Amino acid sequence: MHMKSTIAIIGATGNMGSAIAKSLANGSYRLLLCANDFPTVQELAQTIKTDTPSADVEAIVCSRNASWEADIIILATPYQAEQEIAETIQEIASQKIVVSIANPVNESYSGLVTAPDTSAAEELQKRLPHSKVIKAFNTTFAADFATPVIDGKQVDAFVAGNDEEALQTVSELVKTAGFNPIVAGDLSVSRTLETMQFLLIQLTMKYNYYTLGVQGSQDTASFFNDKTVAGSLTMTSVKLSA
Ligand SMILES: NC(=O)c1ccc[n+]([C@@H]2O[C@H](COP(=O)([O-])OP(=O)(O)OC[C@H]3O[C@@H](n4cnc5c(N)ncnc54)[C@H](OP(=O)(O)O)[C@@H]3O)[C@@H](O)[C@H]2O)c1
């Protein structure tokens, strides 16, 4: 009998966390949602249940509790929080798949906080030596989840990691979310994926590059984040998306 996997989404109320949660609601998963602000997590779980009555979703109080029950843990938080959470779930996450979606940009968006010979995902793997860390979703903007199919083609989403089975499991998950998963290589490829996305963020800030090139008529602000008031791209709207 096929057993449902349980997925903990830590940072579920954020741009990415909520987009991932909603996109997986139709899948054969049990979703455990968690973030700092519990009433907002409860509200999100309720919205998902209303929109998708078949969804198996619940709000849960802390990242430790959510991770305890999960087979797959998605850390949909900023890089700094990802590192802190890793400390608290280290034992619980042993042998489990942990997905890093972070782009470790600095506060001024002028560079990455990680050294060139590493990546957010590899740093996470160091903190969780007994977990199977997989990089995924860092090259898909939160707004992409609304339109994962453009001109009849699924948008590509890169996946990287060292464990074959975990790569396969996360590729399935990426597919369920609506994207075309492409296994880009082992976990060290995360350096390229994170740098690639950093370049894209910078070009979009400078030239509206991604929106003009990929999304056609959609304006940059709404592309980055549909919660952002439409208008010219500001550091704030990028901050929400980075
Ligand atoms: N936005 C994008 O388009 C995009 C694209 C690719 C990758 N990413 C990456 O995705 C990650 C999240 O980005 P985002 O734009 O979704 O950020 P966001 O909107 O600011 O959301 C962050 C989420 O993390 C939660 N959080 C923060 N610290 C936490 C902690 N210690 N324990 C539990 N939850 C915590 C927040 O909960 P509270 O609000 O309750 O504090 C919130 O739900 C970042 O690493 C970013 O680089 C973003």
UniProtKB/TrEMBL annotation:
Question: Under which name does UniProt file this protein?
Answer: NAD(P)-binding domain-containing protein
Q: Where are the transmembrane segments?
A: none
Q: Which Gene3D superfamilies match?
A: NAD(P)-binding Rossmann-like Domain (3.40.50.720)
The yes or no answer to whether the keyword Oxidoreductase is present is yes
The domain of life for this entry's organism is Bacteria
Source organism (scientific name): Nibrella saemangeumensis
Question: Which key words tag this protein in UniProt?
Answer: Oxidoreductase
Pyrroline-5-carboxylate reductase catalytic N-terminal domain mapped to chain residues:
6-104
Give the PANTHER family listed for this entry: DUDULIN-RELATED
Oxidoreductase keyword on record? yes
